[in-house]
Amino acid sequence: MSFGLPPLKGPFEGQKELGIVTGHFGVHDSFGFGIKKVKESVEINHPLEVSEKNYALKEEKLSLAMLRNNQGLHAPMKIMAELHATRQVGRLPFLESSNLSADTIRNNDDLLDFTDFLNHPDTEERMVIPHVVMERKLGVL
């Protein structure tokens, strides 16, 4: 005898891989798949939003192309190698990097951005215990 209730067993394992995230009633199953992210379903609001998101990348590609035309292939390769080397420098997980060396290579150290005085969310101050953070990173905890 069925009362129309969903079964007690959870979704089958391959359901996420197939992209099925709805429950038995056709709505998002928050218990099985986590809270739905609204940001993924929202469309772009303004035509300039895409342009602003890709502005820094396009500007960097343009400057590297101009540098290649003026000085040859070695100059952009040297800059990209230096940027790669600055990304490889590690810090302890509880210390945030200011990326000063990467900004110096890109000549962005002289520019004032809104993140310089409004504080970027990635560099917010957090009160953490350094030993606990290191133990978690190393897998001790």
TrEMBL record:
Protein name per UniProt: Unkown protein
Extract the InterPro entries matched here.
Ump1
What processes in GO biological process is this protein linked to?
proteasome assembly
Which Pfam families would you find in this protein's record? UMP1
Q: Name one GO cellular component term.
A: nucleus
Q: Which domain of life is it from?
A: Eukaryota
Print the keywords alphabetically.
Chaperone
Q: Which family does it belong to?
A: Belongs to the POMP/UMP1 family.
Q: Which organism is it from?
A: Riptortus pedestris
